[in-house]
Design goal:
alpha+beta, two-stranded antiparallel ribbon
Length: about 110
């Protein structure tokens, strides 16, 4: 029983992550119109603020890269790299390099 609850939770979380833009658009238009007719404009504005807050959280989630380093035979170190710039603001030179080489390699040094 617990396994099914966890599996449904994982599937729901993945669906929410990958389809959030479509869900948010539906909530801000179709569902918001129904809420406004039933409960008034203030309820619509509150609902849209909530959708906006969740959208901000989803954007922050998407700008994180998780990298694993093998420290020795049995130990992996996890490092989260947070992007400070959205993908649509990336320089044209970087995008051209990715298109030509099909990958972008960043080298990091560990001083610890």
């Amino acid at each position: 029983m617990v396994g099914w609850v966890i599996a449904v939770g994982v599937v729901a979380s993945l669906a929410l992550k990958y389809f959030w833009e479509d869900i948010a658009q539906w909530l801000n238009n179709t569902a918001a119109n129904v809420v406004e007719r039933k409960f008034g404009i203030d309820a619509r504005k509150t609902m849209q603020r909530a959708v906006c807050t969740v959208t901000k959280i989803m954007n922050k989630i998407d700008n994180v890269a998780r990298v694993y380093f093998r420290m020795d035979k049995y130990y992996l170190k996890q490092v989260d790299l947070h992007a400070t710039q959205p993908e649509y603001e990336t320089d044209e030179e970087v995008l051209q390099e990715i298109d030509m080489k099909k990958e972008l390699i960043n080298e990091f040094t560990y001083n610890g």
